[in-house]
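Students often ask why we bother encoding 3D structure as a string. The short answer is that it lets us treat folding as translation between two languages. Here is a chain of 465 residues written in the first language.
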Amino acid sequence: MFVQFLIILSIVAIILSFGYPSPLLYDFFYYNVPYFNKFRAPSMILVLVHFALPILAAYGIKEIFGIRENLTPKDRKALNILVGISGLLLISGFVFSAIFQTTYQEAVAASKYGKQMIQAYSETTFAEISNFIFDEMIADWYRVGIIALIGSILIYAYSLRKISSSLFSIGLFVLIAIDLWQVSYRPMEVAEKKADKIMFQKTDVINFLLEDKSKFRIADFTSQIVNLPAYFRLESVNGYHSAKLRIYQDLLDVANQGSTSQVTNPFLWNLLNVKYVITPQQIGGMQPIFQSQQTGAFVYFNAGYTPRAYFVDSVEVMKNIDILNKIKDGAFDPRKVAFLEKELPNKLSKNPENSIVKIKNYQNEYIKIETENSSDNLLVLSEIYYPAGWKAYIDGKETEILKTNYALRSVFVPAGKHTIEMKFESPAFEKGKLISTSLNIVVVILLGIGFFIEIRRRKKSKLVN
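And here it is in the second language, the structure alphabet:
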């Protein structure tokens, strides 16, 4: 009964994962099942398939061991059918790749999403993308077909006592390892894929920007591919993210007319450490510092940008909506004044010209900065304020991270030489990591014990017989 339940569960989940193309079942769940409409994508329900299939596979292997002990003519016929279907699966992959590639790509191009991609990129780029998708699909088809054929032959040979249990177990283990390795290999080696080299070509603009080793962001208005600068480890304020932090979304809603993919407010460029602006056309009254010989794009230096970390002269306390309006109007110099939502415990001195801020380490979860200032000052960082995890330390002692300019962060730094560190520390993540690692170790140990007990049982059974 449990096996039948898992099979039905998997089928229902697969159908639901198609979304609106299967409205009969999907609409019922969407409008009637609590919280189902909260999923960002219908494909998230495939987690049920990920849960069910390994269990079904274990039950299948158990049945194979049982068939060997009592093989019937019906079982032999079923094994022949299994090998035949596996062979047909592989052969059909060769036939499909040889005959239907053009038909497949034309169908994709004529679809709603194909037309959107052609409009967003170009027909040439779309052709490269569709070729890449087709090649990956066929490669997966071949891989599944080969693994299925070898696996069915192993089952056939084992059930007919042509190979030993040990050889059968080793063969299954090798097939599973190869399959899992292939799945994990693809994202690990994405830089070596043909389509990536075509889509993410390094232009002379990229090379120019990479020559600057300081910490900065860019505003790129030329890339046809979303988030292209990130491929080259360039930090851009433009681009797309499906789950922005609310505090950053508020900043863009008020100060950027709601646009979340293109930051067009020059004052936001200053505030967000945008050192270079890349445009497809010249900006009137400004002189570019570089022009691409490949694409014609212009690179402009933003003289008003703030460094990634810097001291300010003074602070003002305001309500959050008033701060957002100040940013929207660009009515202050962010290198001179910072806006907080509560009073500082200590009074600031004017930022001396000889104060020093050196970034020593800058990673996603760890920032290290060395400072030297002759008076008490506020160190502003052009990083999002996120108290649920980020902690700050001055010379090893924890200090408060202040919400600054509505969406950024700062710390109060007393006079002298100091080392400021910011670390992202999530107790919940660490606890989950510990539990997951521990359970994995326990499962491996139990599997080892299970194999040991089974081997001893079989040895005793042979001695008795």
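Translate back mentally: The longest helix spans residues 427-464. Keep this in mind for the problem set.
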